[in-house]
Amino acid sequence: MSETLDLSLLKGTPEQxxxxxxxxxxxxxxxxxxxxxxxxxxxxxxHNLFDYTRKFFALSHEDKMTAKxxxxxxxxxxxxxxxxESISSISGYEKGxxxxxxxxxxxxxxxxxxxxDDLVDNIxxxxxKLPGFRKFMEGFYEECFKLELEILAALAEALDVPSxxxxxxxxxxxxxxxxxxxxxINASELADGTATRIAEHTDFGTITMLFQxxxxxxxxxDQQQLGTFRNIESADKTEIILxxxxxxxxxxxxxxxxxxxxxxxxxxxKVGSDQIIPxxxxxxxxxxxNRTASLFPFKKxxxxxxxxxxxxxxxxxxxxxxxxKLFS
Length: 328
Ligand SMILES: O=C(O)CCC(=O)C(=O)O
Ligand SMILES: [Fe+2]
Known about the structure:
Elements: E1 5-6, H1 14-31, E2 33-37, H2 43-58, H3 61-65, E3 78-80, E4 104-105, E5 108-112, H4 133-159, H5 163-169, E6 176-182, E7 185-186, E8 195-196, E9 198-201, E10 207-212, E11 218-221, E12 229-231, E13 240-244, H6 246-251, E14 261-263, E15 276-277, E16 280-287, H7 315-324
Parallel strand pairs: 1-2, 4-8
Antiparallel strand pairs: 2-13, 3-5, 5-6, 6-16, 7-15, 9-14, 10-13, 10-16, 11-12, 11-14
Helix pairs in contact: 1-4, 2-4, 4-5
2-oxoglutaric acid (AKG) binds at residues 178, 180, 198, 203, 210, 212, 218, 261, 263, 282, 284.
């Protein structure tokens, strides 16, 4: 994967800002994902994020189940145990591929949204089980929201779309945020292809900011060689891996393609061997347009030579359409 981009240059000279915005756009378009450093979220904050994530999943099953995700898809909040959600049901959705491959994801997750969300409440374990967890996660979400707006403004400039328009579209912070834990597993259990860590998929939102530990196994499809998945390793867990989601693909009428990704064997493990794949933690923040916003492509991307590919649908309708498939 290409070099890690220094996001602090967005606050540098106008030339530096333009150069890093352009590099970001180019990397996302060609490689599918970009790595970011000096993004403004402090090392301490990210280390605390991983500490709290580890502590949450270390709670007993009974305690985690006190914050359980409803059996249906909405609201997408709370704890999902290993086997509750299966991403393979949406693999290939925006590529128009047939659905229905059944691959089990061996992962557990906690889904959260904004504390300010007036439609959907978060679901927490009792404060005494994990003191400070709720306050930390609510605060971290707000930090991610500020960074999201900065990244979207930079992408808007590089795409030559008014950055105010991009900002307005995301003003309500109706995003989602998830902690993920992949338990240790014998490699032989993943060998026959009926189970994986997380199956191939695209995210639904505009952009996703992902943090991962050093275990490895995340792969993103190269946008210039579709079908080729490349390993993405973070030099440090404070790095952010940025990728494009389906909503930006729609808004840009396919100028930007959502990046397919998955988590599988770490590069160090031999496929089908009896080696134990170590547990893995990651955290994903999914930036999404406001629920009532239209995902109809921006005007500049619809031309006689690039006719409109998408229907007018609100971000909320689209989100629910996609997410319903996950729990069906
Ligand atoms: O665990 C990861 O690195 C990826 C997680 C992911 O792709 C997702 O939750 O959408
Ligand atoms: Fe994802």
